[in-house]
Specification:
It is a single chain. By secondary structure, the protein is of the alpha/beta class. The protein is built from ten helices and nine strands. It has a six-stranded parallel beta sheet, with helices on both faces. Strands 7-8-9 form a three-stranded mixed beta sheet, covered by helices on one side. Helix 3 packs parallel to helix 4 and helix 6 crosses helix 9.
Length: 281
């Protein structure tokens, strides 16, 4: 006998939410899409990302699991809105790229109120520089890691853990503080580097259009994520400035090491040898 899968409400059916909806529906979950833009929700339905869609958040109350797929500055306010309609039988999670501030504020909202839905912070380590439902793909989460900032042994989060495993994710458990410290380096810093590099490129392009003719693979690799939206990345940076300041300074120091040793062949070779990526990933 087939076990009935949970109903999942995805709030924000863009690239991440739409891709999650597609992956869940392939695994026989029922997916409710909730958003503000009716045309985009209709596209989500047409492309197979949702079974039903609504512009009113109250319909999330019909779900067993709610996944907030919105920019990090909107997650806490969305939780506040949801508790008007959603019982403690529903579990709420997010996919935000920062965790500490979000989980802290939501825990403060919940306090000792046992009637509020449980919240578990999640961050799937996946995505692209593109955005919107038209760029959603059903394999976005396959073989990717999702960080869950809760205790592994917490029985309340089992449905969410199973959901992520069902769409093909590996699971990593860590504290919100540790998550923000690590992704400041592995995710947020690379975006700042890309934005900075592309800003310099645009300034140079104004004076010499020929620079476009000599952009190739390495240029595309370092600037790919510079296509990302400030609507997404400004709140992320604002939410993780303490950790980012440390890794940005660390990166600048490393650049200065190269700059200081351009005329010292042995030291420059040593710097390069220590920096070469030689793994097979």
């Amino acid at each position: 006998m087939e076990v009935t899968k949970p109903i999942v409400a995805v709030i924000g059916v863009g690239l991440m939410g739409g891709s999650l909806g597609m992956a869940l529906r392939l695994r026989k979950y029922k997916v409710i899409g909730i958003g503000r833009n009716l045309k985009k929700l209709q596209i989500a339905k047409k492309t197979g990302a949702v079974d039903f869609f609504y512009t009113d958040m109250k319909y999330a109350a019909n779900a067993n699991i709610i996944v907030i797929c919105l920019p990090v500055n909107k997650i806490v306010e969305t939780y506040k809105e949801l508790i008007k309609f959603v019982s403690n039988k529903t579990i709420i999670c997010d996919i935000g790229s920062t965790k500490y501030t979000i989980t802290k504020k939501i825990k403060q909202i919940i306090g000792k109120n046992k009637n509020y839905p449980y919240f578990v912070g999640c961050h799937p380590m996946t995505g692209t520089e593109k955005s919107g439902i038209t760029n959603a793909v059903n394999e976005l989460y396959t073989k990717k890691t999702v960080v869950i900032t809760d205790k592994k042994e917490n029985k309340k989060i089992k449905p969410v853990v199973k959901m992520w495993k069902d769409v093909g994710c590996n699971i990593a458990f860590m504290s919100p503080e540790k998550h923000d410290e690590l992704v400041a380096f592995t995710s947020h810093l690379p975006h700042i580097i890309a934005f900075s590099f592309y800003k310099i490129f645009k300034d140079k392009l104004k004076n010499n259009s020929q620079i476009k003719a000599v952009t190739a693979g390495s240029f595309e690799s370092i600037t790919r994520v510079a296509k990302s939206s400030s609507d997404i990345w400004l709140p992320i940076i604002e939410n993780n400035t303490k950790n980012l300041k440390k890794v940005v300074d660390e990166f600048c120091n490393q650049l200065n090491l190269f700059s200081k040793n351009f005329k010292n062949k042995n030291k420059l070779k040593n710097l390069i040898d220590k920096s070469v990526r030689n793994d097979t990933k």
